[in-house]
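Preliminary data (for renewal application), S-adenosylmethionine complex.
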Amino acid sequence: MTTPAERLQTPEGRSRLIKHFEQSSIEKHNDAWNDLWETGSSNMWDRGKPSPALIDLLEQREDILSPIAANGQRKKILVPGCGKGYDVVMLALHGFDAVGLEISSKGVSTAEEYAHKELQTPQAYNFGPAWANKFGRGSVSFIQGDFFQSDCTKGEKFDLIYDYTFLCALHPEMRAQWASRMADLLFSGGLLVCLEFPLFKELSHPGPPWPLQGVHSDLLAEGGDGILYPPKPPQQAGTGSFERKWYIKPERSYESGQGADMLSIYARK
Ligand SMILES: C[S@@+](CC[C@H](N)C(=O)[O-])C[C@H]1O[C@@H](n2cnc3c(N)ncnc32)[C@H](O)[C@@H]1O
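Predicted structure:
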């Protein structure tokens, strides 16, 4: 039985994505993602189903993540770098108005096609053991755009944002901008839910996926730049735009992160 770290280090699993991005400057990374979609290479990161860890959080911790706001309206959730849209659809099936954002137009059309089929006959993988259809369905929509452009959602802000394998897909130099865009896109008091992956990879190793051990709290709670390798003196505590409210080890996660992934939930100050 191989561990997640060992699997990532197989020549096939590890080096294709890394080499692809090493060949282009950071300014060209949007094009590099587009190329991967256009050449049918999304299987390099596609897990084939929504996140078991997020499903369990939604179904078991309504105290944290109810889809209905105090005024009775559905909450709006954004999934940046949503890929094929598994989580966007699953979130709508759990009652949220869910929006997926993707840089690639091919990614968006793939997600739209997936959502169209999946909403007609949702597969069992969208629901966990504690599923009870209490809230009905929310809406699903997709936006083609660059997360780092201030007008990418046409000024719309969100109650919640979910990040899985979006931060780890970005070059470390983009991390401070990632945190600042997250702060811009959330209402005050809004929640940023991160399924932290990969935490088992050494900080000195290249990505994508870039290793993230300690990176979320540095960026979001401490106000650091999230670049933790090579090591440097600790930041002044608590100067970030977010406060970490929950830090949960999920019982179930994707096989690639099972036993290592953490769910962190940050509130926008
Ligand atoms: C590693 S994939 C993860 C996809 C998805 N979260 C999943 O779990 O399948 C990263 C995704 O982010 C998208 N992406 C990269 N840079 C982006 C940007 N600046 N704005 C929006 N999407 C971006 C890529 O096209 C790709 O689909």
